[in-house]
Amino acid sequence: MIRFYNAKILTMEEPLTVRDGELWTDGDTISYIGETHAELPQFEREINADGNLLMPSFKNAHTHSAMTFLRSFAEDVPLQTWLFEKVFPYEDRLTAEDVYAFDRLAILEYLAAGTTAFFDMYFYPDSTVQAAIESGMRAVLCGSINGSAKDVERLNAQFQKFRHIHPRIGYRLGFHAEYTSDESLHRELARLAQAEKEPVFTHISETKAEHDGCIERHGASPAQYLESLGLWEYGGGGFHCVWFDQADRAVFQRRGLWFITCPCSNAKLASGIAPLKECLAEGLLLAVGTDGPASNNALDPFKEMYLGAVLQKLRNMDAAAIPAASVLRAATVGSARAMGLTDCDVLAQGKQADLIMIDLHAANMQPAHHIPESLVLSGDRSNVKLTMCAGKILYENGEYFIGVSPEEILKDTAQRIARLTQ
Amino acid sequence: MIRFYNAKILTMEEPLTVRDGELWTDGDTISYIGETHAELPQFEREINADGNLLMPSFKNAHTHSAMTFLRSFAEDVPLQTWLFEKVFPYEDRLTAEDVYAFDRLAILEYLAAGTTAFFDMYFYPDSTVQAAIESGMRAVLCGSINGSAKDVERLNAQFQKFRHIHPRIGYRLGFHAEYTSDESLHRELARLAQAEKEPVFTHISETKAEHDGCIERHGASPAQYLESLGLWEYGGGGFHCVWFDQADRAVFQRRGLWFITCPCSNAKLASGIAPLKECLAEGLLLAVGTDGPASNNALDPFKEMYLGAVLQKLRNMDAAAIPAASVLRAATVGSARAMGLTDCDVLAQGKQADLIMIDLHAANMQPAHHIPESLVLSGDRSNVKLTMCAGKILYENGEYFIGVSPEEILKDTAQRIARLTQ
């Protein structure tokens, strides 16, 4: 049992309020939130939060973590050059061991930024599972098949293998994108999703070219086309959703799908600004992801929240566009639920102890007129003092507790990167 | 004398290269950059940089530092409501002691983010001078008069008082903006600038309404109108420049004026995206500022560089738009020169020792394929390990050496904020 006392607590339950109090954990679970008891049980550790903030950890609802190896490898080049000359040829050389190593590098960055779970779409899922389990983090794998109907068999094999493999590992059906697969795949996947009563996730309407291409190919936008095939009878969601119009959003609203926005990646790759204001006004379910670290370039929920908020002001030319708290909600509660982590969404008794402590004494968090707004508009990952996943402290004041030292991870990845990019 | 060894050094001299070596300081000056000598003099301190990066510190070329007290006070409201209901009435209550206190709060944030100099436009300049001198930072004050010709006298009195007051303090002629002053002020200020052979700075074309308003009032855009009055015979520059068209940029090019961009503030207040791509293509002089912390909301050069770079990709719908290194140059060398700090611009023997050390071992800076690009696209202020101004270490590994503790500053500002915003 761990006790945090002298804390400010933002549970992220509605309506958002910050209250003074304490929080206890028992094993992987939050066992108490409230005022100080007169009589206290025996704790393994008691942490004086010193007036700092406890809140749910961030969850990264879209990423390709192992792309850490290509970060800053080729910048400021056109998207097609980047993908075909600087990404694909190097990804072809990756081994399972490389992916494990580069996932561990990403995990260092996730934990220092207060992220405890990531929704990962990449090669070699066994490697990602191993890296996540060993570190103490959560990972939800997302199917990433492309091609045609025959590939759905491989997806199903992965799904059956990973769905119950570990309490901190999840699996969601998914495919890369409409434009990298054919109709036979979409139909076969819809059948599988219906048989298993499972949600389905995919990249969708990230670029205008891809969105318009689907209309040419199928006579409908990706969202409308995929809905018509019965892909989303049991929910799911889409990554990016930049070029969504009203009819696309209506599909997402009707089916209860997750609109998973990646504002930094969409800016860096010049994909566009997603319609978050409309999305919130229409009551859609909003979550936030970083996308891979080669197209972002950080794995940092604070950067996503900041861009998520301020780009709406530019898109709408309205300083009042979207409340800052709405992106905070999306990056914590929303992303957790999108990934199926409904027991890690808010801080409450009985929920998983996936939480962070934020330094409210740092100059950039002062004055604390409105803490949720400060987290989005002036907060950054240097304010993360402690990151806990499933009741275990994995990061505290710059130190990691993940069973391996950062130095060892850096040494290992440096050798692999030299080999891969030579 | 201080010695940094085992360092990677990015002097920011052209062409940009990162080389291994060491750097020595002697008093406030850089006395040596190069390889390790066989024989070393006696040093006061020897710092093993452990492969981390030494580079010029950031300079903040536009700010209203003391607005820290209003940070997160009113968010997501229309600009006019914010200014007239949430800023002006509270600023009216400020005393000189308040400004000193809130400047000290800003200085904590500046130093932790690697900023050693700020170009400040606000009330009670004596307070800002005192806060800067005591902390060890540099400040360049910018005149902020509005009104009519008679106010120029007050500006000149300030100019004469502060121009040579201290080696780390500067003063530049300036006025708030075209739309808050009349033609008699602009003409009188032009006369003063010509008599003193001094540059002049002002807010310019920040919002479309203000830009268009000037065309209505004077039949020309702010840049063209002010040039026609002879305001910029000896240079100067403009803050924001969001709505600059080709003719406005031509004025800046012709006069050698500084285009001082504030991308975060312009996004948060929905002012727009400044034409940095055109600005660079046309060879204009580019510098970077944060604007005040109530309209940003951070005093963080990393956020400015990131937005500065990626917003150009969105504005131009081109992932190749503007090299990341160009905003790094603007936020260091450019901003220093815009403020007249030509001896603090790059790292070189004989220059002032205004520098920072960046942690290259942090996960978000790995792999180090291209360090200038990483600083802009994945770097953040948590990577700043050490900040030195005029040869003195003012910040190192989270600790401040500014003659006052952060706790004392926070306690003081909390009391003042409670009084001001009650």
3D architecture notes:
Two copies of one chain form a homodimer. By secondary structure, chain A is an alpha/beta fold. The first copy, chain A, has two domains: 111 residues, Urease, subunit C, domain 1 (Roll), CATH 2.30.40.10; 280 residues, TIM Barrel. Chain A has 14 helices and 17 strands. The longest helix of chain A has 17 residues. The radius of gyration of chain A is 21 Å and the shape is globular. The N and C termini of chain A lie far apart (49 Å). The model of chain A has no long low-confidence stretch (mean pLDDT 97). At the A-B interface, α2, α9, α11, α13 and α14 of A face α2, α9, α11, α13 and α14 of B.
Question: What is the secondary structure topology, with strand pairs?
Answer:
Two copies of one chain form a homodimer.
Chain A: E1 2-10, E2 18-26, E3 29-34, E4 45-48, E5 53-56, E6 58-63, H1 79-91, H2 96-112, E7 115-120, H3 125-135, E8 138-142, H4 151-162, E9 169-177, H5 183-196, E10 200-204, H6 208-218, H7 222-228, E11 236-240, H8 246-255, E12 258-261, H9 263-268, H10 276-281, E13 285-288, H11 301-316, H12 324-338, E14 355-358, H13 371-377, E15 384-389, E16 392-396, E17 399-400, H14 406-421
Parallel strand pairs in A: 1-4, 1-5, 6-7, 7-8, 8-9, 9-10, 10-11, 11-12, 12-13
Antiparallel strand pairs in A: 1-2, 2-3, 5-14, 14-15, 15-16, 16-17
Helix pairs in contact in A: 2-3, 2-14, 7-8, 11-12, 12-13
CATH superfamily of the largest domain in chain A: Metal-dependent hydrolases
User: What does the overall shape of chain A look like?
Assistant: globular
CATH topology of the largest domain in chain A: TIM Barrel
Oligomer: homodimer
Low-confidence stretches of chain A: none
- Largest interface, Cβ cutoff 8 Å: A-B, 68 and 68 residues
Task: Indicate the structural class of chain A.
Answer: alpha/beta
SS field, number of helical segments of chain A: 14
| Number of DSSP strand runs of chain A | 17
Number of domains of chain A: 2
What gap, in angstroms, lies between the N and C termini of chain A? 49 Å
Largest sheet of chain A: 9 strands, mixed
Supply Rg of chain A. 21 Å
Fraction of residues in H or I helices of chain A:
25-40%
> Which percent band covers the strand fraction of chain A?
15-25%
What's the CATH first level of the largest domain in chain A? Answer: Alpha Beta
Query: On the 0-100 scale, what is the average pLDDT of chain A?
Result: 97
